[in-house]
């Protein structure tokens, strides 16, 4: 029987809101429609300020941003429904990831903070809304991340090939999917920076959001020695399970490692692309040496230079998730539709071997869509 869910995702790259309308029909998972709503420059700036490790923000500004994002998520749902010509009453539930402003799973009092009030989403759309997915896993001693591997397993698992899914958003994460005959459990973790450092560097030097198709990075020369030194960072050498955020992989982090002014900015850009590529590829080689096929999703796939570096550093096949039926820009939002469905059906959404949680948990809180 067909069941419709909506997934809302706005990742650490702060590009905007992805909204996916997904049809679950027995074992099939199909995208019905998709909507992307970019964030305005003003919103990006506020979220960027809030996400800094040493951010000073008033509780009023915090509360206002939470409310504003709630309205923006609700608007994204409305425009998705209008585009698909579907009534709100046909939707089982929304899964809203929220906007991560801080991810600190390893602090003494661990937390992961997402904003975008789900009360507003439920009220404005009249659709049941599942949100706050990460904190139950953290309460069960997990990292609260990554949460997409269970969905990757549901849509890309069961192949006769040893696969690895690499999602290159702000942060990059992998899901290792052994071939169907294998008894090895699925693992996954954040490998380190995805686009975040590349984006932040070009924003500083060229005042644009990202390096379109990696054109600027292609003009530079990789400083291999510098990247080798960066790869010694404790995050890369720490064993999985592990997760990270842009509070850690920031321009401050780069500046602590070397005097960036000594190099041409375009050389740093190429080197940061190499850092993303090599940290991802090394993680695959170490944790999934049998991989035959790497499926890439997330915005990083559009950076030709980055993709070329990934292909050069792996000996297996590297292709887009589109090859197996899902556009790389749609995977993450679809995952939150799937996670909402898990919660509504009282099923767990985390994989304990991925997040490090002590047990599988039903993720998120449920906000009823119908007012009495
Ligand atoms: N044409 C392009 N050329 C180069 N880079 C691109 C292009 N299109 C998108 N990107 C990169 O992809 C990023 C957005 O990717 P995505 O939406 O997957 O990240 P995200 O929202 O942070 O998601 P996640 O939750 O996985 O961190 C942009 O910030 C940019 O770096
Ligand atoms: Mg995005």
Write the layout of secondary structure elements.
Blueprint: E1 2-10, E2 16-25, E3 28-38, H1 41-50, H2 59-84, E4 91-104, E5 111-115, H3 118-125, E6 129-131, H4 134-139, H5 149-156, E7 163-168, E8 171-177, E9 187-193, H6 196-206, H7 215-218, H8 224-230, H9 234-237, H10 251-257, H11 265-287, E10 293-297, H12 304-312, E11 317-320, H13 331-344, H14 352-355, E12 365-367
Parallel strand pairs: 1-4, 4-6, 7-10, 10-11
Antiparallel strand pairs: 1-2, 2-3, 4-5, 6-12, 7-8, 8-9
Outline:
By secondary structure, the protein is α/β, with parallel strands linked by helices. The chain has helices spanning about 40-50, 60-85, 120-125, 135-140, 150-155, 195-205, 215-220, 225-230, 235, 250-255, 265-285, 305-310, 330-345, 350-355, and strands at about 1-10, 15-25, 30-40, 90-105, 110-115, 130, 165-170, 170-175, 185-195, 295, 315-320, 365. The strands form two sheets. Strands 1, 2, 3, 4, 5, 6 and 12 form a seven-stranded mixed beta sheet that branches. A five-stranded mixed beta sheet has the order 9-8-7-10-11, sandwiched between helices.
